[in-house]
Amino acid sequence: MGVPFEALIPYGIIIGMFGLTGAGLSAVNWYANDGKKARWNRDLWDRVMMERDLRLTGSWRGQSSNPEAPKGFELNHPWKLEKRMY
């Protein structure tokens, strides 16, 4: 006795939904990283460089080959204000 084809339709839907979810997640990851591979195992140096790239180019993944910083970069520093205890 064979399996009726009606029993295979839900399996096709499930496999299709997993495929659609995976493709959607991949597209969102690609779009969020400006079309580049996702970074992994980031340490403090990588995070500091990503913040610098954000201030230079306006994108976490953007990099600039311009040897001079854009106008106003010296005023856009990453130092945060500290609350003094005295």
Structural class, from helix and strand content?
mainly alpha
Number of distinct helices: 2
Major β-sheet profile: none
Shape: elongated
- Beta-strand percent range: under 5%
Structure commentary:
The termini are far apart. The chain folds into two domains: 1-32; 40-78, no CATH class. It has two helices and no strands. It is an all-alpha fold and 86 residues long. The mean pLDDT is 84.
How are the SSEs ordered, and which strands pair?
Blueprint: H1 8-32, H2 44-57
Brief sketch in words of this structure:
The chain is mostly helical and 86 residues long.
Which descriptors apply to this entry?
86 residues; mainly alpha; 2 domains
